[in-house]
Write a structure and sequence with these properties.
Length: 485
């Protein structure tokens, strides 16, 4: 009799292949999940990286904007500012006042009134004191007539025309009515030095002097002044190229609505401006000369380093500002703290030497110690990417960091001279926006250079312009002829 099948005999044993298949599918699902999660994290990381770069760019732009010269009253006022002026007390210092004039043109008496203005009683004189008033004269236009004698040369037959020393032009006929040298010089100073528009200058002339002149007439007169000053500008450029120490810098400038660059190269007694289409080495070489062999005190702009024949001094103020910004973002960056301390100590060493508290030998010893300290510190910048970029920049600028300590009396530690030279140009740019034409840009650079140099040499810019305008042919004034240092 065959054996009977039980209930347990009907159950089939589990298939091993199904179990493996299920485990494989589960592993595949886990891998897909991990892959999707990894891709999500990568996309999120990329998004955060882009967001970080955007925020950093905005932060850099905000910091640069804070250092730029803003328009008047563009920044918010302090809610509770300190009281203006110096603090009263022993530390106030010498109290200044206007000096008494040496020359007196008019004398007037201020007698007592017949009766007291308060009660009507009789007044008794007790003393007499003196007050001085410095006033502008009542303006009026001086109209001159020149009787021009015209003749012919007996030898060659050519026309010969007389010229008076007060004339500014030989034009006759339709152009016989001219502006004088004083008026043109005044217009040049108002426009190129003080930033006043030609429209406002014509209004001032009409209201204050009753002198009617059109804006185009003023423009032509200013261009004429630039033509007369062209040899002087050429001489100033030669003085800059031959100077032992020059401080250059550049800023944006618009010409006919297109971005160009206003370059400034300055010494203690000379400043030259040049409006050029670019911001690279060719433009800098046009201003300074390719073979410039003096000292260039400049910022960290790379094209300046291509002057291989020159000695360089980089601006420590730019480096200290960058260090301050890095410490704002990375307060625990000891590398930045140490570099800032070394640079500040170098500036204090210079001041102590100039005050006579450190001898030339002591200056040399301390200079060597500072160089060695910074050299050792540059080898350990840390792991922060921003700090490492700062260290790389310092390594590139290494030969130009402490040049000023070799001759503190002649070499500046910062490019403040060029920054100060650019400031009036920046103010003018904020008012007028630039120049309308290349001809106007050329006039701008010539006249601005003459005015700034005259101011540095404590000359009267108005008198300098008048002498240039009254010259029969363009000349170079002796006061601006040769003084490169």
């Amino acid at each position: 009799m065959p054996p009977q099948r039980t209930r347990d005999d009907d159950a089939q044993p589990p298939d091993a292949s199904d179990d493996l298949r299920e485990r494989a599918e589960r592993a595949e699902r886990e891998r897909d999940h991990e892959r999707r999660e990894r891709e999500r994290l990568q996309h999120e990381n990329e998004r955060l990286r882009r967001e970080l770069e955007r925020v950093k760019r905005q932060l850099d732009e905000a910091r640069r904007a804070a250092h730029r010269q803003a328009a008047p009253f563009a920044k918010a006022l302090t809610p509770h500012p300190r009281r203006p002026g110096r603090t009263a007390g022993a530390g106030y210092g010498v109290k200044a006042h206007r000096r008494r004039p040496r020359r007196i043109e008019e004398r007037h008496e201020a007698p007592l009134p017949c009766a007291c203005p308060h009660c009507g009683g009789r007044v008794r004189e007790t003393r007499v004191t003196t007050q001085y008033q410095e006033e502008l004269p009542v303006p009026h236009v001086v109209v001159r007539q020149f009787r021009i004698h015209i003749g012919a040369c007996r030898a060659c037959g050519r026309r010969v025309q007389g010229r008076h020393p007060l004339q500014t032009s030989d034009a006759l006929g339709a152009a016989s009515v001219q502006l004088g040298a004083q008026a043109i010089a005044f217009a040049v100073i108002l426009n190129k030095q003080l930033g006043l528009s030609f429209g406002k200058i014509t209004t001032l002339f009409r209201q204050q002097y009753r002198l009617t002149v059109s804006r185009s007439g003023l423009v032509h007169a200013v261009h004429r002044a630039a033509r007369q000053a062209q040899p002087t500008y050429t001489a100033l450029c030669g003085q800059i190229r031959g100077s032992p120490v020059v401080t250059p810098d550049e800023t944006g400038w618009k010409v006919a609505g297109h971005l160009q660059w206003l370059w400034a190269a300055t010494t203690p007694t000379t400043t030259v401006y040049a409006i050029q289409p670019g911001r690279g080495y060719p433009e800098a070489a046009t201003l300074l000369g390719e073979n410039f062999a003096g000292v260039i005190v400049r910022d960290g702009w790379a094209p300046y380093r291509r002057f291989t024949s020159a000695i360089h001094q980089t601006c420590l103020a730019h480096l200290l500002r960058r260090a301050r910004e890095l410490l704002t973002d990375h307060p625990r960056a000891t590398f930045v703290t140490d570099v800032r301390a070394i640079l500040q100590q170098a500036l204090r060493l210079r001041d102590r030497h100039l005050d006579g508290r450190v001898s030339a030998h002591g200056l040399a010893v301390a200079r060597g110690q500072l160089i060695e300290r910074l050299n050792r510190r540059l080898d350990r910048p840390g792991t922060i990417s921003d700090v490492r970029r700062f260290a790389a920049h310092l390594a590139v600028e290494w030969p130009a960091l402490f040049t000023f300590l070799f001759d503190p009396t002649a070499i500046d530690a910062t490019n403040w001279r060029a920054e100060q030279a650019l400031r009036p140009a920046v103010v003018t740019r904020k008012i007028c926006g630039g120049n309308r034409s290349p001809h106007g840009a050329e006039t701008q650079q010539i006249l601005a250079s003459v005015l700034r140099t005259a101011q540095q040499r404590q000359l009267n810019p108005h008198a300098v312009l008048v002498s240039l305008l009254r010259a029969a042919t363009p000349i170079v004034p002796l006061a601006l002829a040769d003084r490169a240092r």
